[in-house]
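User: Predict the complex.
Assistant: Input components as received:
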Amino acid sequence: APESPMSSSESVKSLTELVQQPCPAIETSKDGKSQESSEPPASESQSTTPLPLSGHSALSIQELVAMSPELDTYGITKRVKEVLTDNNLGQRLFGETILGLTQGSVSDLLARPKPWHKLSLKGREPFVRMQLWLNDPNNVEKLMDMKRMEKKAYMKRRHSSVSDSQSCESSSAGIDYSQGASPQPQHQLKKPRVVLAPEEKEALKRAYQQKPYPSPKTIEELATQLNLKTSTVINWFHNYRSRIRRELFIEEIQAGSQSQAGSSDSPSARSSRAAHSSEGDSCDGVDAEGPPDGKPSGPEADEFSNAAAKSQGGPAEPAFEAGEEALRGARPSERAEPESLEDTDDEGRLRAPRQSSPPAPQRPGDALETLPNSATEGDASTSAASTSVLTGESSYKSKESSEKISSVPSTSSTPASGSQKANSLQSLFGFSEAASSRNTRDSSLRKKKAANLNNIIHRLEKAASREEAVEWEF
DNA sequence: TTAAAGTCAATAGA
DNA sequence: TCTATTGACTTTAA
């Protein structure tokens, strides 16, 4: 049902044309699962999208993904970025045409590629597509052509405001875009995008540091205090957790590539974490319980534990008041408004444009930092934790520093091979052999422990909250 | 049901 | 423009 109406069909179309494949029925499927849609060329009726390059392989993208050896995601994105930059090709074009993703997704993907082993089948798809694209000798030209056609279509449209839909080729791109462009005055009920104020974010981050997995109660509290919708707080935690995790991935990758100059990447482990503690709030041991697939998921996560450990003597003390505590320092309402909000608690926030409230008079930071560390309810453990959070000069602000992935690994080589059929998988992916992680058992061990600790805490809390008996295995 | 993974799409910044 | 960020939503797994 969901699925982005545009991307799939659109990209499919354009792709087909680019690749000059006969292009049979294109759109359609959507029902399947994700956005990738039917698959034109070969026979797979499965949901597949035509691959640009080595084209018509008899394999569907899924099959390729499934068969693909471990790819050096970091190396791939690096090269893609290079190619795009060198040829002045935009992420939007590339994403919609080659990957079937939107610009934002492409940006994200290129900036923070997750290591192959951390990706689900679906998540690997874009990387396989990128790899295939890189292997396509005509990749750039095709994209350039696309670009030209788009431009043409655009011009055409501008002039002949109304009609114009035809123009096949150009339309492939044009059509779709125009659609998304504006046609439908969607003044409808689009709810405005929520934009969290810096203070709110800080408060949430602090809450996160104390409790990466806040209980419903805490969430409720946070929401109320910050005058946010509960769902917003929930979403924020979800997003934050996952993004922190990704930050870690790239940190690892970078660290790895640095320490070992040329190998193929696959950062599975490695850490050396960071010097940049930026994002002080990061990690929670989330990963520990990670992807169920049994993989012990290893490396990551320990910043949070660090933080936790640091701030409170013992890890296992999940500040239950996390929410409150965190709030204390930050909630904008603190001085701006009486947080009481009578309006629909949940909706309350909608009434006013986010920004308006908080930015308050002074810089966000001080509120937090100067805060007299509440601890009103002087609960030892709690206050201890909260204190560190509230006063913790550490994190915030530094956060944004999350650096770019600049550095460079080396890696992959990828021979460009051109047209070949599926079997040429080797040539397609042939380079990536290795990579497999290895090493770093040591540091990762440490992390694992920390992560595990977090996991335990989380489970404990969970159990506690629902008062169920659980057997713990530590 | 819950959390993670993946994306979209609005929008902030260059 | 184009890219980066991020809240929300959908899909996938447990």
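The longest helix of chain A spans residues 230-259.
Let me know if you want any component modeled separately.
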